[in-house]
């Protein structure tokens, strides 16, 4: 079964393997397969589910809601997000204004078929809305019982500090950040993680397998497999392109004997690696088929010894991205059209 970790300094526990439905539900797979995968996740001990209103332009929330329908609300935790343009994508259908946040939570609750979400997250930082307005809206949503906890995604260390100060003043729990993090993409380690540790904020990390590159299925000098994420624009091909270089793919192949020595598959090794960071509360994993989750959950509870961690670092050091300045490039300076 899957282990649990506290989210930030709160008393709220989440499954350290969390199921995320970006690029799968209402997009990559049919609804029947998506619902079967959610039920498989529950059978395997995953009880935390992450989505966003922008995924498939709100349709992914609908599918997740259908999959969770009829279950005891205390048996699962559901996270969603607000920020990116959705629906008709009008002038107020985006960002972190008070209006869009309230429209967003009401829409998400309706699509998910729940009375509250466990975690409501700012999907990016909104440079065009005063932070005070955003945080006051989140505080009101918590007080109204529509969200239990508040999180953010891809905020810089400075933004986390400012947000945490306002959350403390407004007396609501800001407990998490959701950044990209893997053994190949380590940009949060320099500033974001130290600030989060100081503030009592956990990381819920996405792409622990670097968009599938750390699975080892992409080989240097070889065509990418048909139907893989690298060939599908809907499945984040633009995100994976940064890793699709022969030096990176060669370095990943060098992880195979390390994984074998540890008794793990490459996907298990990559998920276990992010979970060794004590500031990480959960690793987000996706799946287009139920059986894919059977491999992923075996990374829960794995402890990698110092020798294995050193070997991973040595194998990937020439290609791993560690530049903290990358954390300042994620949120658009203006609202996306």
TrEMBL record:
Keyword line: NADP, Oxidoreductase
InterPro entries for the chain: K_chnl_volt-dep_bsu_KCNAB-rel, NAD(P)_OxRdtase_dom_sf, NADP_OxRdtase_dom
Residue ranges of the TM segments: none
Tagged with keyword Hydrolase: no
The organism's place on the tree of life at top rank: Bacteria
Annotated NADP-dependent oxidoreductase domain residues: 17-316
PANTHER family tied to this protein: HYPERKINETIC, ISOFORM M (PTHR43150), L-GLYCERALDEHYDE 3-PHOSPHATE REDUCTASE (PTHR43150:SF4)
Protein family according to the UniProt entry: Belongs to the shaker potassium channel beta subunit family.
The protein's name: Aldo/keto reductase family protein
């Amino acid at each position: 079964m899957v282990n649990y970790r506290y989210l930030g300094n709160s008393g709220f526990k989440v499954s350290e393997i969390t199921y995320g439905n970006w690029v799968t539900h209402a997009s990559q797979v049919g609804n029947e397969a998506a619902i079967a995968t959610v039920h498989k996740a529950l059978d395997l001990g995953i009880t935390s589910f992450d989505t966003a209103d922008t995924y498939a332009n709100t349709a992914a929330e609908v599918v997740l809601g259908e999959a969770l329908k009829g279950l005891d609300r205390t048996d699962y935790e559901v996270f969603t997000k607000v920020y990116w343009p959705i629906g008709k994508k009008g002038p107020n259908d985006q960002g972190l204004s008070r209006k869009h946040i309230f429209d967003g939570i009401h829409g998400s609750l309706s699509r998910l078929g729940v009375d509250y979400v466990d975690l409501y997250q700012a999907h990016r930082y909104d440079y065009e809305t005063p932070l005070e307005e955003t945080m006051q809206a989140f505080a009101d949503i918590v007080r109204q019982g529509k969200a239990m906890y508040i999180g953010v995604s891809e905020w810089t260390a400075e933004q986390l500090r400012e947000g945490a100060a306002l959350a403390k003043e407004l007396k609501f729990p800001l407990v998490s950040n959701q950044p990209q993090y893997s053994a190949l993409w380590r940009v949060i380690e320099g500033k974001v993680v130290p600030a989060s540790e100081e503030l009592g904020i956990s990381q819920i990390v996405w792409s622990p397998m670097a968009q599938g590159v750390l699975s080892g299925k992409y080989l240097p000098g070889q065509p990418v497999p048909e139907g893989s994420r690298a060939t599908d624009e809907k499945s984040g091909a633009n995100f994976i392109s940064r890793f699709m270089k022969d030096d990176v793919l060669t370095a990943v192949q060098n992880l195979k004997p390390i994984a074998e020595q540890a008794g793990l598959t490459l996907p298990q090794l990559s998920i276990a690696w992010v979970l060794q960071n004590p500031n990480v509360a959960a690793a987000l994993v996706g799946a287009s088929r139920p059986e894919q989750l059977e491999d992923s959950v075996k990374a829960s509870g794995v402890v990698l010894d110092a020798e294995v961690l050193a070997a991973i670092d040595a194998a990937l050091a020439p290609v791993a991205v560690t530049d903290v300045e990358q954390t300042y490039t994620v949120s658009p300076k203006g609202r996306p059209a």
